[in-house]
Amino acid sequence: MTQARLFYGTLTYGALTVCALVFNSACVVRTNARPPRARVTVQANTPPPPQPNATVVVQAQTPQAASGVTVVEATCQQGAQEVCNGLDDNCDGIIDEGCGYQSGNIQITLGWNTGADLDMYVTDPTGFEIYYGASQSPSGGRLDHDARGACDRSTFQPGGYSTENVYWDQQNPPNGSYGVDVNYWNGDCSTRNGMTQFTLSVAVGGSIIGTYSNNLAPNQRVPVVTFQI
After folding, report:
1. 143 pLDDT more than 50
2. Given this model, what pLDDT does residue 56 score?
3. What does DSSP assign to residue 190?
4. Helix, strand or coil, per DSSP, at residue 26
């Protein structure tokens, strides 16, 4: 009596797998299916990466408004929609979120609603001055929104607000004194708008520490506020 023999073999070539099953006869089965790749799970005691948005409490001393500047008792309403006006309209400690610019442990935002071209100048504790001509300081401060009022017709909307924004988004912005000035640029497209009122808000550590207002004439630059962290 002949003993039955069972043979099973697998041959892989590219995308072709050939199987032969022999039991006193032979057959060939072809398939285009790719064999699954083996997966190996490796576990290690690697610590999780640091979280860039981890909360670090940054506190500011009482800010000092410059002479002639009005300290504004700004009002806000929980859940209100931000108007992109240089104010914290919804009471969350962030100025104009959703308006296309950034916030951080320090945020300073200037807003006005004429066609004037106002420019914000922020001096950090190292003495570096951030403005449209030097938009990033070595200390991490950035001007990420530079508005030109009616001097930039592509963005200006009559009756709407123009805004400028400077922020530090690192967990530990530099300690020391910060100063903020506002200048009314002396250009024909700007100065034809006459006297202009602005509003400026300062947030530190997720809280508004002050809101200020003043009126500027063309070609006038004024200090607004100083604060320390």
Report:
1. yes
2. 57
3. H
4. coil
Average pLDDT for 174-193: 96
Please, what is the average pLDDT of the chain?
Answer: 82
Other C-beta atoms closer than 10 Å to the C-beta of 29 total 9
Helix (H, G, I), strand (E, B) or coil at 151: helix
The conformation of residue 149, written as its DSSP 8-state character, comes to G
Closest CA to 26 of 45, 46, 12, 5: 5
Q: Is 47 exposed, middle or buried (0-12, 13-18, 19+ CB in 10 A)?
A: exposed
d(CA 107, CA 142): 10
**Two tokens, residue 88:** 């914290």
The confidence score (pLDDT) of residue 74 equals 86
Q: Give the contacts of 105 (CB within 8 A, at least 6 positions apart).
A: 56, 58, 168, 169, 170, 171, 172, 173, 204, 205, 206
Distance CA 88, CA 134 (A): 26
Question: How buried is residue 72: exposed, middle or buried, by Cβ count under 10 Å (0-12/13-18/19+)?
Answer: middle
Instruction: For 65-121, write each residue's pLDDT tens digit.
Output: 999 999 999 889 999 999 999 999 999 999 999 999 999 999 999 999 999 999 999
Q: Say how far residue 132 (Cα) sits from the centre of its chain.
A: 18
CB 163 within 8 A of CB 95: no
Adjacency order of strands within the sheet including 207-216: 70-71, 207-216, 196-204, 106-112, 162-168, 142-145
* pTM for the full predicted model: 0.75
43 vs 198, residue with greater confidence: 198
